[in-house]
């Protein structure tokens, strides 16, 4: 395996894509195993998928409803990654570590608020 000057393997083409998919699956498995919030949001996504199949809304509205729930899951995955990196650096209290975790949490909250707004707007207005 050859390496570039950044210390990363220099796979290209189909090999890189296959390895990237494998790493992504590993990440999803780790997130599911170690993060309760991820498990809750996956359950929420399953419920949302079931709900939208019975709602009398357009296809675009279905995509918007499900898309906002998927967005919450995406942001939670990023937040969990930030928290893992911060915890890897050290468990002692540090202003920047706390700020990073708080900002990641705020991103999840904003995504959740957007999802709630979208669902309420489409279903009730």
Task: Describe the protein in words.
The termini are far apart. Helix 3 packs antiparallel against helix 4. By secondary structure, this protein is an all-alpha fold. The chain has helices at residues 13-34, 36-54, 59-89, 95-124. The radius of gyration is 18 Å and the shape is globular.
Secondary-structure map:
Blueprint: H1 13-34, H2 36-54, H3 59-89, H4 95-124
Helix pairs in contact: 2-3, 3-4
The amount of helix comes to over 70%
Task: Give average pLDDT, whole number.
Answer: 94
Which range does the strand content fall in? under 5%
Low-confidence stretches: none
Rg estimate, integer Å: 18 Å
Alpha-beta classification: mainly alpha
Overall outline: globular
Distance between the termini: 57 Å
Number of helices, where a helix is a run of at least 4 consecutive DSSP H or I residues? 4
Order of helices and strands: HHHH
Largest sheet: none
Q: Give the beta-strand count.
A: 0
Key structural traits:
125 residues, mainly alpha, 82% helix, globular
What can be said about this structure in brief?
This protein is mainly alpha-helical and 125 residues long.
